[in-house]
Design goal:
By secondary structure, this protein is of the alpha+beta class. The protein contains 5 helices and 5 strands; from the N terminus they run H-H-H-H-E-E-E-E-H-E. The strands form 2 sheets. It has a 3-stranded mixed sheet, with no helix packed on it.
Length: about 140
């Protein structure tokens, strides 16, 4: 059975008049089936097991298109490669500057700050592109 988040993304693609290619569906599935937020290379590893003719350029092209359509978000954890998640899986990554641990918290954890920024500065905070850095409780 297909992950409902993949089906929702496919429906949004169709509604926007975009083609649903096997590679695009495979990218969506690979993200949905990952235990965490995968990198493009990890997405490719999952895909080539089923579609050996897919190349990393195809993965990046599809990730960019899906991101531009608001169906996929990405963020950078420290200085590593971007990691990807399906829209709707809103969460924030807290990265310890000392030990490198990553703690995921619900996106709602920053709702008050988002509202404050909007009210005080007229600024609407979008999906996180970068992780929030600081010190974890073990390193503080």
């Amino acid at each position: 059975m297909e992950d409902p988040r993949v089906e929702e993304a496919v429906a949004a693609l169709r509604a926007a008049g975009h083609r649903i290619t096997a590679a695009r569906r495979a990218v969506l599935r690979a993200i949905a089936e990952s235990d965490g937020d995968p990198t493009a290379e990890e997405i490719l590893e999952r895909i080539v097991a089923i579609h050996p003719d897919v190349h990393i350029a195809t993965v990046y092209r599809n990730l960019e298109a899906l991101r531009d359509l608001g169906l996929v978000h990405h963020s950078h954890l420290r200085h590593g490669p971007a990691v990807y998640r399906l829209a709707g899986d809103e969460k924030e990554q807290l990265v310890c500057e000392r030990c490198g641990s990553v703690t995921e918290v619900p996106g709602a954890a920053l709702d008050k700050s988002r509202q404050d920024l909007r009210r005080r500065y007229g600024f609407r905070l979008g999906p996180q592109h970068f992780a929030i850095t600081g010190r974890c409780r073990n390193c503080d």
